Amino acid sequence: MQEGYSVSLCCKALGLSRSGYYAWEKRPAQLITKDTLMLYREAKRLFKESRYSLGSRELMKALRKQGYFIGRYKTRTIMRKLGLVVRQRVAYKVTTKRDERHLAAPNLINMDFNPAQPNQVWAGDISYLRTGQGWMYLSVVMDLYSRRIIGWSINKRMTSNLVLQSMGDVGACWDNAVVERFFGSLKHDWILKAQHPTYESMAADVGAYMKYYNLKRLHTSNGDMTPVEYENYQLKVSTWA
User: Fold this and answer.
1) Residue range 218-235: average pLDDT?
2) Is residue 74 pLDDT above 80, yes or no?
3) Which domain covers residue 24, as residue numbers?
């Protein structure tokens, strides 16, 4: 009698029917293999490591990198089963425009984003990040060969050393599209998913993303390798040749 009363209270609190509870209780438990359990754990780890930003295609590639033979359909099924939902990104909008009184640097890249060797073409830009104490300004330099961030600096003041970057003409944002995409990933896949009450917490989180981006994040342009992995692989290839 006491057990039945407890079940009724629990069902009422959870908004469930007693008949539904007893039907669930009679169903045999679903067993999963050790390999499946390890796959689920790895999928959750990779998804969490990306700060919940990996879609099914990216998660599939990451799992394959870990040695799992898995396709897109199975990856989507796992994501649904484990409740791995990606937060939608906000489309990037151009909000700044060059002061016409300032001279623009000559356009040397001309939308050629795939140099043949490292350290041939570097792209740099600056963006701003909000903290509980005010704005911070982040400057990065990327090697377009591997998409690796080779240098970055963050400061609560926009100093002259921080902004010594090239400044293109109107429409030249398209010539810096790779770095713009980097900032989009940094903000929407990482920064906006955490609280940053202080300058120090923001600087530390940016540093964590730089490490993740260079060492863990797979790039389609690199044949689904990380920037550092791609550089090391190409170095081995050139050594063997």
Assistant:
1) 93
2) yes
3) 1-30
For residues 166 and 125, give the distance between their C-alpha atoms in angstroms, rounded to a whole number.
8
Residue 230 belongs to some domain of the structure: yes
Nearest to 151 by CA among 135, 168, 167, 138: 138
Q: In this structure, how many other beta carbons lie within 10 angstroms of the beta carbon of residue 52? A: 14
Domains of the chain: total? 3
Q: In this structure, are 195 and 140 located in the same domain? A: yes
Those residues whose C-beta lies under 8 Å from the C-beta of residue 146, and which sit 6 or more positions away, are 118, 222, 227, 228, 230, 231, 234
Across the range 205-230, mean pLDDT stands at 95
Query: Per residue in 144-200, pLDDT tens?
Result: 999 999 999 999 887 666 655 644 444 444 457 889 999 999 999 999 999 999 999
Residues 136 and 148 placed together within one structural domain of the fold:
yes
Residue 129 CA to residue 136 CA, distance in Å, equals: 5
